[in-house]
Amino acid sequence: MAYQNLISEVKENILYVTINREKALNALNKDTLAELADVIAYAGKTEEVRGVILTGTGEKAFVAGADIKEFSEYNGKQGEELAKRGQDEVFNAIENSPKPFIAAVNGFALGGGLELAMACHIRIASDNAKLGLPEVTLGLIPGYGGTQRLTQLVGKGKAIEMITTANMITAAEAEKIGLVNHVVPPTDLISKAEEILNLVKQRAPLAVSAAIKAIIASVNNDNGYTTEIEAFGRCFETADFKEGVSAFVEKRKANFSGH
Ligand code: CO8
User: Fold this and answer.
1) Given 28, 95, 144, 209, which is the most exposed site by the fewest CB atoms within 10 A?
2) Rounded to the nearest whole angstrom, what is the distance from the C-alpha of residue 41 to the centroid of ligand 1?
3) Is this complex scored with an ipTM above 0.90?
4) pLDDT per 10-residue tile (average), the chain, 259 residues
5) Strand-pair category, 182-184 with 130-132
6) For residues 229 and 215, what is the distance between their CA atoms, to the nearest angstrom?
7) What residue ranges are annotated as transmembrane (predicted)?
8) Where are the beta strands (DSSP E) in the chain?
9) One of 115, 161, 228, 237 is an active-site residue; which one?
10) Distance of alpha carbon 24 from its chain centroid, rounded?
11) Is 115 an annotated catalytic residue?
C-alpha cells in the first residue's frame, strides 16, 4: 500500500503503520486521516494481519494533534462534521477493529494524537513521551473522542484536570494513572509492542476479537454483559474452539486457523 503520509508494511502478520509527517510533528491533516481510515479498513479485512502497531516518524512526536493550520477553514457545522467523520472512520474504527491495535507512543501525543493513542487497544510509551489534551488552549475541546476515552482510562477527576489545565504529563505519570500500559526506553518501544502482539498471535484470533468487542461494549455502556454472553456462545461454533480443546487434551500446542 502506497500512501503519501503513512508508511505501512506487513511483517510476520503484524501491520506496521507509521505516520510520516515529521516536519509537522506528524499532525493529522485531512489527507492523513483519510489514509488512516483506509489502512484501518485494510487491517480489519485482511486475514494475514493479526495485529497493528501504530507509531510516528522520528524521535520527537507520535502525533502532535490535529493539524491546527487547517482549523482556520472551519465553521461550527464543518467542525462538527469533521469530528464525526474522524470519529467514525478512524478513531471508532480502530476501537471497533477485530484486530488488536497497539499505539507505540514515541514522543509528543497531544490532542488528536493522544486521542489516536487512546482509541488503540493498548498503549506503550517511550520514557521521553509527553501526553496531553491541550485543545482548550486553542478555544476548543477534544473532538476525536478524548473527553470520553480519557475519562474511561483515568477516571473523571484526572480527566477533568488534564483537559481543563491542558497540562502535558510524562510517560511515567501516564503509566501511574493507567493511561499507558508500559513505559520503555525509546530503543525498546517497537520490540515491546511486538512482544505483546507475538503472544496475542498465538491465541485464537476469533476469540481475541470477541474478547476485545465485549470489553469495548462495557466501556461504551453498550450491553457489555449481553455482548459477552453472545460472543461466548459463538466461540463454541468455531474450528478454533475445537482445536484449542483438542490441543489441550492431546497435550500439544494449538494451531489456530482463525475460523
Ligand atoms: N498542527 C500543525 N502543525 C504542527 C502541530 C499541529 N498540531 N504541532 C506542531 N506543528 C508544526 C509546527 O507548526 C512547526 O512547523 P514549522 O516548522 O513549519 O513552524 C513544527 O511542527 C515543529 O513544531 P514546533 O516548532 O512548535 O516544535 P517545538 O519543539 O517548539 O514544540 C510542541 C513542540 C510543544 C508539540 C508544539 O509543536 C505544539 O504545541 N504543538 C501543538 C500541540 C497542540 O496544541 N495539539 C492539539 C491540536 S488540537 C487537536 O488535536 C484537536 C483534535 C480534535 C479535532 C476534532 C476535529 C475537528
Assistant:
1) 209
2) 27
3) yes
4) 95 98 97 98 97 98 96 90 94 98 98 98 98 98 98 98 98 98 98 98 97 96 96 97 97 95
5) unpaired
6) 12
7) none
8) 6-11, 14-19, 51-56, 61-63, 101-105, 108-110, 122-126, 130-132, 169-170, 182-184
9) 115
10) 21
11) yes
